[in-house]
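Sample pair:
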Amino acid sequence: MKKMFLNWLYYVGSIYIITLIFAPNISKYFLVLGVIALIFMVIVNLVFARFFYNSSADHVNAKFVKNRYKLENKKCIVQYNPDRKIIISENLTSEQKREKRIFTIDKSDGADVSHCWYLICKMFDEYLDIDLLYAYFKKKYDIKLQFVSTLPEVKTVDITIQPPKSQAQEFFDINNIQKDSYKLDTPVENIDSEFVEMDEIAPASLIDINSASASQIASLPGINIVIAKKIVEFRNKNGEFKSEDEFLEIAQVKEIFIPKIRKKIQILKPKTTKKQKPNKGRIVDI
């Protein structure tokens, strides 16, 4: 409507200026006729065009028309509130467990809602979806795509189970509380002597670096699985390690980890198997 009005003013004004220059006597009459024609077009648009736009659903395939102001296919749903707004939402099935996309074309945003309804009815078919409609109207109006949750709300109930009072007293009796045997004047050195290293209590089994797997080597401090695999490849290619220093040199760990690693590794001597003497045949008297 606004675009048509501006175009009409542009044509009437251009012709009026031309007639004013070349035929000033009839320029006034032409201007009056142009204004009358413009008023007539506005009245026709307000009366007939609005009626034509609101009945646009009559031209849509009947299988997509739910009622006069609602269209629906397998991909989207369009609801029209005459001369106010159009709500376009995604048509999800029961198997599609996700948020529904929706956007609104509102008259308050400067949109000609009736004309938009006419355009939607004109293009509505089984292939039309919310993405096409959003891309089309986004170029003309400032609309925003929203996401609405369709999943049912899960209500959480806080259940607190408290034992009976008599049962609670069986576990805790305030009258039987005794004082701690620890004294405040205990010397500091005696306290420190009570703490023992965990390795001394339950020493872990040492890892034989010549037979350990990559995962076992990776359990050592400062060595990850990548370095462990490289160590195993080196051992398979060049033979067993002859000393712990050779192992640490190949591992290339930081100095802070070297003492810790030495406590957890060992080099076992390969087990030697006794050679069995060949069985000599014996003579049996028959």
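The chain has three domains: 2-54, 58-148, 204-266.
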